[in-house]
Structures are given as structure tokens and as C-alpha cells.
């Protein structure tokens, strides 16, 4: 068995070796798959047999049954097959298939699997529908457990039947039938079957009319023979009717398919002709002519018509009050031909409508106003349109609206005039306006739609000085346009023009120069300690005086500029200032009399070339130093994390997180499970071979590290119940001792084995543990007795001084100083050195340490000395190294892990020995230092 330490030490190289072995296994599997694919067609190259066995499942043609037998054409047949299992055990997943005609994928009728009990049989079946007449083959395929399938077929014959069908149905006459007419229905019945038919009945009727069906006798027909049958039907209503013809209506003849073979025919029954208007009635007049003529047009339609027919259309206008309705002569419309047709009509009216007042009227057109036509429907004989007698358009001019009623001289005023057309046709014209001494100014041509408004706007400048300005405008239509009332086509509005001064800073003209306004242009950022001049231009309106004050960001005055503006002149303002701060610098230019909004400007300031720059540079260097310090600190934290994290050998135990006996959660360092006292130290040394890849792996691992197969831990470890930890009751709930009854008899149980299992223990297991503890205690007592006996014998001598068998180093050198011990010894290496720091001896002090061991009699390991700890485990980290079986034999008798049902042997008592003891490197047991094998776990040592 291979130990877990050996497996873990191989690392990536060992995993590569396992991967190579897995590839070799995969190659072998691929070889066998190729062989099977090559031999598969040979296995299928077999002749069908009437019976056979596949894996012990027997099927034969004699076990095939048909229902009904024989089947008939167009029907279905159920094929049954009895399968017999000659095996004594159940045959699971027996595959069987039914094929029509031949074994091909397109002919598969049914595929399924079935389980057959041992030495039993079972019946399977499939249904074949829509059978064709004549001989047929049903193939069967049975296969079990990968054996050669059994394939055979059964032949059967399908008998024929008669089949009556309606092959032709006609109605005479084929068109033109109207309400109340009778039609002759001619039906052809044919026997399309393979046998003769007897007497039958053909039923002809109208679908939806229950009393219209007529039965007609049909004589016997030989295969392929036809007969013509006529019947008369009455059609009581117009519309589309469906005539039906059903052969063998009473199932007197056995057919291939019952209830089929009938046919239908649609028949159109026409009503009486109907005259109606199609679409809307249109009444129009010239768009620019207000007194006609008016054109009335539309479409007259006729449905189900027959022959030529003249139809009259009458017109009437509805009036109210004392107004007389106009008289309009009827219009004649000519129809011809059959069926549906549409005839357009048009009528122009002029003098007939001149007497109507302005307004809207309903004009109605009526089909056959005198009632001379016979038609099926008279409810759709009228249509109405709108006749509009239009007024002459009038243009109304609303009062003009200025953008402001009080403005400064020289300012512009935006004038707004709304023009409204009250007529139903478009009008065109111009506005003739006057402003500030200018007369008869014509606008561009303005077009106004019917019953709509149009806005006109104009931006006009005021004159100089204080005065009243008047705007007047009048609508003047073009020569071909209308304006019925000129009294509402004018407007006049006055505004007040003042002479107040108003200033506006032009931000785009602001400029920055050095020292004075005539200095060199400069840009931000501004330099600390330098002097600058800021100049900006103001635009003005009106006349007057103003004082502009320059202020810094703190409100301190920098200077004043007095302005005197006449006739809207522009002005320039200059502010001079010196930079005495490193923060952004701000100035404000304020108009004392409020003629302008305050102008504000801010610039960034740089401290380059000043003491402030040195301070900032020093601060920057300090920031760099602090940044480097922070990075160094982070590096120290990362190094500390790397140096203090657990190594692979320290976390190796973390793979066992749960107890294999009770599934209790573990921290990883326990030797006994805290939930069920399971011996985890021994369980970690237990190994088994993986059932999949046959590699030796720890029994506590849940998945094989070689192939990944999940391991069943229950077969390697005895299942235990977890102990339930019960919390102690609070002091308040404990019963007072003074009140307890001392005479109460404590009862126990006679079944010790059952009682101890409730605590998570096994009686045999406890017995073994007790025997081991008793044996250890007896060995210690015997050693103590021998030691005391030896001391007693020494004391009985007259001149001998009794000494204990074992002495400590302090007892050995009691009463002597270190110099006394070294006195008289030669060739000693002195450890007295002026730079000695009294630290522990290092590898360079190996010779001193060796001589000290010789003097004091102590034993220890010198630096560089090879030491075998526990077993002699050879180096396993070398790839390909194989240790001997004797050196790596980890077999042992696992009393703890043996199921409780097996009786444990009584533990052997320990030998009485005064030999120097060591510790087993495999299980930790105490063994003699010169032992070559552990008597507990069986491990051997070099």
C-alpha cells in the first residue's frame, strides 16, 4: 500500500504520469471501438430466420398473431408477438421493433423496450393503419444484451371492398337562378372499389335546409362502374347555397372507408334587381367663383340586373323659413347587361340655385322618384350632399401690438399684426404702413387661407430724442382678391420714445494687457506680483452721464471712470490692478447710476518664480516622500502575508473537513472526532485501491485524485451517530441540595451495550481501549516496582551509596560548576569571546556542541548530521523513484476501524523493558529505539 505522503509529494510530475496512463487507457478503448465499428456490418449480414434467440430471449414467426385476420383494405390490423425469456433472471431493456414491408428506417412501425421476468414471457404489439389491398409483410427485430438480433417476417393478405363515391355533381341552369326557381341536380355515382356493390341510396339536399333532402335509389355497381342520378331542388331564398350528395347514405354497402365519398356544389340564387348609390354625392363649384355654377356628381349601381333598363334620379334642396326651394329636373341613367354594374352621372346647376341665400344646404338625390321600377330593396334609394352658397370674403385687421409701449430713442420695436380671412376662399394682398415719418410703405404679398389667420411682423427702429411714435397699417387686397368690408381693415397704435441712457458691456471685447491699457497683450494665468490692465467696450442707447467703478474680489475700489454719452456712442473702460494673492483673482465693474448690469471677470493666478513656488515645490517633494513610504508599507504587508501564510504541508490536512463515520464538521487537527470520538489519526493512515483506476488512495478522501471517481466511504468506515451536546441548566433551575431526597434510589440499565451506544460508543471498542489502558498502567507499575526494589537493594550495602536508576542533567552535575567539569580537559575550544552575545549555538559551533555532549553525556543532533526520524522513508519527490516494498509496507491491524459485529482480540500487554523508547513515524506509538518494525501498525524501518 502507498502512503498518502508519497502521493502528495509527487506533485505535478506524478499527476502527469497518471495523465499518461489515462491516455494509454483511452487509446486502448478507441482501438476496441474501431474494431466494433468494422465488425458491425458483418453482424448485420444475416438472412432472416423464422425463429431465434438473442441473449436468451426467444422470438419466432409462430408467436406472431393478427387481429382481425384477415384484415381488409383501408382498415387496420394489430400485430402481436410473444417473447420468451429462457434466462433464470429478468431480461431488462429487451429491444424490439416492427417494420412495414422491410427493415428500413423509413418503414419503422414501432420501436420499444420491455422487461421480461426470468423463465417467463410477455406479449408486445403494434398497429398498422390504412392497409392497402394485397399481400403485405411485417418484419420483426428482437435484440437483448448486445447479442445478435433475431429478425424474421410474417406475410399476410389484405382483402378488397367496394367503395361508392360521387365523382360529378352539377346544377342546371348553371347561373341566373333567382328566388323561387327550381334547379335540376345531376349526380354521378362510381364504384371505385375492387368488389361489386349491392343496392344503395343516394341522398341529395341543400345544406342548412332540413326538409330539402331527397333520397334516390342506386342500382348495384361492378368495380369501376358509374351511374347518373337526377333530382329537382327548390331554392326559397336568395344567397349562396351548398348542395350536398351522399352515396350509400344508410350504410347498406360495406366499403373501404365508411362515411366518405360524398361531394358538394355551391349554387348562387339571385334576388330581384336592386338600384342604389355607390360612394358619396359630390357638389363642387369653382374655387375662385362665388356665384356658381355648381356640379352635382355621383355613381348609381345596379345589382342582380338583367337586360337594359332606364332609371331616373331626382334632386331636391331642403330650405327653411320663407325661402322657396329650387326646382331641379330629374336625370335619366341607362343600365344594360347582366349582373352588377355601375353608371356614373353628373348634373350642372347654375340659375336654379341663384335665389338661395348664403349658407349650407342639404341636397338629396333619389333613385326612381316616381316608383316605376320593381326592385328587391328600396331602403338604399337616397343619398345626400352638402351644397354651400359661399359669402364674399372679408379681411379683418386686428390692432397692432408693439414689443414695448415705452422704449429708448434709437431702440427697435417689433410690431405684430394679425390678419383674419372670414371667407371660404383664399385672399391675397399687402399691408400699407407708416412709421416715424415714412409713409405708404408696402409689405410683401400676404396670402391668407379660407377661414384662417396670418400674422405679420416687422422690426422698426425709433428716432432720436424723446417723442411719441405712431404706427398705422391698412390691408389692400390684390386686383383678383376680395375684401367685402374695408372698415375693419385698418389699425393705428402710438408708443412713447424716451431718451434714458442705457449701457451694455460687450464681453467679447474684453482684453487683458500688462501694466497699462497700452501694454502688451497677455493671457491667464496671472503672475503673482505683476500689474495688469483690463479693458472692455460698452454699447449705449440714449444720452446721459455715468460713473463706472472698478472693484476687486473683496469689494475694494481699484478706480473710477466718468462717462458722458451722446447720440448712442460707445465707450471704453480700463481697470488697473496688481496681483498680491495666489488664489483666483476677480474684478467687478459697477455702474453707479444703474445704467448697466455689473460686469464680472475672474483669472487664475500662478506662483511660479516666487517664494510660494518654492513652498509648493517643497510640499510636492513631501507628497512624493509620503507616497513612497505608503508604497513601502504596502510591500511590507504583502511580504508579511506571503511569509506567514500556510505552506502546502500545513494545509494538507484541510482536505479532510468532515468525519467519515458521522459526517461531523472538523477543524483538521483533531485526533478524535469531537462528535462521535472516532479515531481520526488512524483513519488518516488508512488506504484502499480505487475501484476505477486501481490506484492506492486515502480511504478518507471523497474523490479519487487520479481519475476523479467518487468514493463510497461507508464500506471503509463504521457509521456512527453523533452525540448531542446538551447545555447545562442555569443555576436558578438547579434543585437545591438541601431539598433533594437522599433516599431516592438511582436506577440504571442491565443492557450496557445498548445504553453505551446512545453515547456514540461501541461496547467492544471500549473493552479494547480499557484493556490497552490497563496494560499500559500495569507496565508502568511494574517498572516503578523494579526501580524501588533496586533502590532498596543498594541501601542494604554497608559502603555503597544508593542512587536512582534515572538521573536528570541537573542531578548529574549537582554541586559542580561548569568550569569544574571542564577542568583538566585538553584541546577544548573556548567559547569565551569578547563579541559573544550569549545566543544559542549555531552551526558554526558544532565542534563545541559535540564536546559538550561528550562531557555531559547528553545526546542530540549536530548541524549537518543525517537523522532518520521514525521510518526510513526514502526521497519521494524524485520522479520515477520506486521504493522497496519492505520499506513502504504500511499494513496494520485496524482494530478501531473494524465493524462492531467482529469480535476484537484482547490487546497484548506491553513488555516490561527499561530500553530507551522512541516514537513510530507512522502511527505515533511508543517503540524501542532499536526496533526495525512497529508492533502496532506494522511499519518497517531501515
Molecular structure report:
- This protein is of the alpha+beta class and 942 residues long.
- A hairpin with a 7-residue loop joins β5 and β6.
- The radius of gyration is 62 Å and the shape is flat.
- The N terminus is likely disordered.
Q: Determine Rg (CA atoms, Å).
A: 62 Å
Distance between the termini: 17 Å
SS-based class: alpha+beta
Give the overall shape: flat
**How many beta-strand runs?**
46
Helix content: 10-25%
Report the major sheet: 6 strands, mixed
Strand content: 35-45%
Mean pLDDT: 77
| pLDDT < 50 runs, ≥5 residues | 1-26, 37-47, 646-654, 731-740, 794-810, 830-838, 870-889, 891-913
Put simply, the count of helices is 8
Short note summarizing the structure:
The protein has 942 residues and is of the alpha+beta class. Helices cover 15% and strands 35% of the residues.
Ordered list of secondary-structure elements with their pairings:
Blueprint: H1 4-44, E1 51-54, E2 57-60, E3 64-67, E4 77-85, E5 91-100, E6 108-116, E7 121-128, E8 134-143, E9 150-158, E10 164-172, E11 182-191, E12 200-206, E13 214-218, E14 226-234, E15 239-246, E16 263-269, E17 274-284, E18 294-306, E19 309-317, E20 331-335, E21 338-349, E22 359-367, E23 382-389, E24 395-397, E25 401-402, E26 406-408, E27 412-421, E28 427-435, E29 438-442, E30 446-448, E31 453-461, E32 467-477, E33 490-498, E34 502-514, E35 526-527, E36 531-541, E37 544-552, E38 557-565, E39 571-578, E40 585-591, E41 599-603, E42 605-606, H2 611-644, H3 680-683, E43 687-689, E44 696-698, H4 752-757, H5 763-796, H6 809-812, H7 818-822, H8 846-856, E45 917-919, E46 926-928
Parallel strand pairs: 26-33, 35-42
Antiparallel strand pairs: 1-2, 2-4, 3-4, 4-7, 5-6, 5-8, 8-9, 10-11, 11-14, 12-13, 12-15, 15-16, 17-18, 18-21, 19-20, 19-22, 22-23, 24-27, 25-27, 27-31, 28-29, 28-30, 28-32, 32-33, 34-36, 36-39, 37-38, 37-40, 40-41, 43-44, 45-46
Amino acid at each position: 500500500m502507498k502512503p498518502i505522503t508519497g502521493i502528495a509529494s509527487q506533485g505535478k510530475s506524478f499527476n502527469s504520469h497518471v495523465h499518461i496512463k489515462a491516455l494509454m487507457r483511452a487509446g486502448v478503448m478507441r482501438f476496441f471501438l474501431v474494431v466494433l465499428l468494422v465488425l458491425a456490418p458483418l453482424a448485420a449480414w444475416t438472412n432472416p430466420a423464422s425463429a431465434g434467440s438473442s441473449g436468451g430471449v426467444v422470438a419466432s414467426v409462430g408467436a406472431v398473431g393478427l387481429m382481425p385476420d384477415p384484415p381488409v383494405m383501408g382498415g387496420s390490423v394489430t400485430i402481436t408477438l410473444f417473447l420468451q425469456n429462457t434466462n433464470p433472471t429478468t431480461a431488462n431493456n429487451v429491444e424490439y421493433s416492427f417494420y412495414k414491408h422491410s427493415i428500413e428506417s423509413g418503414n419503422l412501425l414501432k420501436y420499444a423496450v420491455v422487461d421480461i421476468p426470468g423463465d417467463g414471457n410477455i406479449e408486445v404489439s403494434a398497429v398498422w393503419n390504412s392497409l392497402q389491398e394485397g399481400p403485405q409483410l411485417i418484419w420483426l427485430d428482437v435484440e437483448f444484451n448486445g447479442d445478435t438480433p433475431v429478425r424474421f417476417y410474417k406475410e399476410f393478405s389484405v382483402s378488397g371492398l367496394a367503395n361508392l363515391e360521387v365523382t360529378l355533381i352539377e346544377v342546371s341552369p348553371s347561373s341566373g337562378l333567382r328566388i323561387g326557381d327550381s334547379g335540376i341536380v345531376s349526380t354521378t355515382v362510381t364504384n371505385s372499389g375492387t368488389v361489386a356493390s349491392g343496392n344503395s341510396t343516394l341522398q341529395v339536399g341543400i345544406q342548412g335546409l332540413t326538409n330539402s333532402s331527397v333520397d334516390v335509389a342506386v342500382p348495384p355497381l361492378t368495380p369501376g362502374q358509374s351511374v347518373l342520378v337526377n333530382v329537382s331542388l327548390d331554392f326559397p331564398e336568395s344567397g349562396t347555397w351548398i348542395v350536398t350528395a351522399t352515396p350509400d347514405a344508410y350504410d347498406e354497402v360495406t366499403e373501404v372507408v365508411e362515411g366518405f365519398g360524398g361531394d358538394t356544389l355551391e349554387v348562387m340564387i339571385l334576388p330581384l334587381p336592386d338600384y342604389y348609390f355607390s360612394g358619396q354625392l359630390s357638389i363642387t363649384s369653382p374655387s375662385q367663383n362665388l356665384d356658381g355654377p355648381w356640379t352635382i356628381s355621383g355613381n348609381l349601381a345596379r345589382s342582380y340586373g338583367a337586360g337594359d333598363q332606364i332609371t331616373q334620379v331626382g334632386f331636391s334642396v331642403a330650405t327653411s323659413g320663407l325661402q322657396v326651394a329650387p326646382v331641379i329636373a330629374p336625370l335619366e341613367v341607362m343600365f344594360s347587361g347582366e349582373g352588377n354594374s355601375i353608371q356614373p352621372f353628373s348634373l350642372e346647376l347654375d340659375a336654379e340655385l341663384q335665389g338661395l341665400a348664403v349658407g349650407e344646404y342639404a341636397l338629396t338625390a333619389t333613385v326612381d322618384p316616381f316608383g316605376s321600377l320593381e326592385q328587391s330593396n328600396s331602403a338604399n334609394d337616397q343619398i345626400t350632399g352638402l351644397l354651400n352658397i359661399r359669402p364674399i370674403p372679408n379681411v379683418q385687421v386686428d390692432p397692432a401690438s408693439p414689443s414695448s409701449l415705452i422704449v429708448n430713442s434709437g431702440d427697435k420695436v417689433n410690431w405684430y399684426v394679425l390678419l383674419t380671412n372670414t371667407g371660404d376662399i383664399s385672399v391675397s394682398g399687402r399691408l400699407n404702413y407708416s412709421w416715424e415719418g415714412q409713409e405708404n410703405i408696402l409689405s410683401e404679398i400676404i396670402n391668407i387661407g379660407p377661414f384662417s389667420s396670418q400674422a405679420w411682423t416687422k422690426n422698426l427702429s425709433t428716432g432720436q430724442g424723446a417723442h411719441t411714435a405712431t404706427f398705422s397699417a391698412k390691408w389692400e387686397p390684390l386686383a383678383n382678391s376680395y375684401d367685402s368690408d374695408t372698415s375693419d381693415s385698418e389699425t393705428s397704435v402710438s408708443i412713447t420714445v424716451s431718451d434714458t441712457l442705457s449701457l451694455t458691456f460687450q464681453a467679447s471685447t474684453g482684453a487683458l494687457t500688462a501694466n497699462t491699457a497700452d501694454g502688451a497683450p497677455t493671457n491667464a494665468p496671472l503672475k503673482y506680483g505683476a500689474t495688469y490692465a483690463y479693458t472692455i467696450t460698452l454699447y449705449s442707447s440714449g444720452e446721459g452721464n455715468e460713473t463706472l467703478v472698478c472693484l476687486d474680489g473683496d469689494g475694494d475700489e481699484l478706480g473710477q471712470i466718468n462717462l458722458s454719452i451722446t447720440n448712442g456712442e460707445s465707450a471704453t473702460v480700463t481697470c488697473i490692478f496688481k496681483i498680491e494673492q495666489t488664489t483666483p483673482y476677480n474684478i467687478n465693474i459697477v455702474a453707479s447710476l444703474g445704467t448697466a448690469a455689473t460686469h464680472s471677470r475672474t483669472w487664475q493666478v500662478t506662483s511660479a518664480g516666487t517664494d510660494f513656488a518654492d513652498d509648493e515645490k517643497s510640499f510636492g517633494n513631501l507628497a512624493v516622500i509620503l507616497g513612497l513610504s505608503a508604497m513601502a508599507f504596502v510591500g511590507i504587508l504583502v511580504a508579511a502575508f506571503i511569509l506567514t501564510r500556510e505552506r502546502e504541508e500545513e494545509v494538507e490536512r484541510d482536505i479532510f473537513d468532515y468525519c467519515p463515520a458521522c459526517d461531523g464538521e472538523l477543524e483538521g487537527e483533531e485526533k478524535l472526532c469531537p462528535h462521535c470520538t472516532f479515531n481520526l489519526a488512524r483513519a488518516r493512515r488508512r488506504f484502499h485501491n480505487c475501484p476505477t483506476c486501481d490506484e492506492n488512495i486515502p480511504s478518507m478522501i471523497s474523490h479519487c485524485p487520479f481519475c476523479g471517481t467518487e468514493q463510497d466511504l461507508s464500506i471503509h468506515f463504521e457509521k456512527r451517530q453523533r452525540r448531542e451536546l446538551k447545555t447545562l441548566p442555569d443555576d436558578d433551575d438547579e434543585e437545591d441540595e438541601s431539598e433533594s431526597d437522599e433516599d431516592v434510589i438511582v436506577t440504571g440499565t442491565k443492557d450496557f451495550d445498548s445504553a453505551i451506544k446512545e453515547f456514540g460508543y461501541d461496547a467492544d471498542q471500549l473493552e479494547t481501549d480499557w484493556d490497552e489502558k490497563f496494560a499500559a498502567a500495569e507496565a508502568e507499575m511494574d517498572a516503578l516496582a523494579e526501580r524501588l526494589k533496586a533502590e532498596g537493594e543498594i541501601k542494604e550495602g554497608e559502603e555503597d551509596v544508593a542512587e536512582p536508576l534515572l538521573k536528570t542533567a541537573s542531578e548529574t552535575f549537582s554541586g559542580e560548576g561548569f568550569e569544574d567539569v571542564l577542568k583538566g580537559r585538553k584541546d577544548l575550544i573556548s567559547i569565551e569571546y569578547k563579541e559573544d552575545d550569549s545566543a544559542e549555538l549555531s552551526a558554526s559551533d558544532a565542534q563545541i556542541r559535540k564536546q559538550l555532549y561528550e562531557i555531559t553525556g547528553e545526546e542530540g543532533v549536530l548541524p549537518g548530521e543525517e537523522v532518520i526520524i521514525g521510518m526510513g522513508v526514502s526521497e519521494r519527490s524524485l520522479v520515477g523513484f520506486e521504493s522497496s516494498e519492505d520499506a513502504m509496507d504500511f499494513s496494520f491491524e485496524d482494530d478501531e476501524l473494524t465493524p462492531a459485529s467482529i469480535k476484537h482480540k484482547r490487546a497484548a500487554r506491553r513488555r516490561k523493558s527499561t530500553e530507551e523508547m522512541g516514537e513510530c513515524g507512522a502511527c505515533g506509538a511508543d517503540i524501542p529505539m532499536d526496533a526495525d518494525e512497529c508492533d502496532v501498525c506494522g511499519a518497517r524501518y531501515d
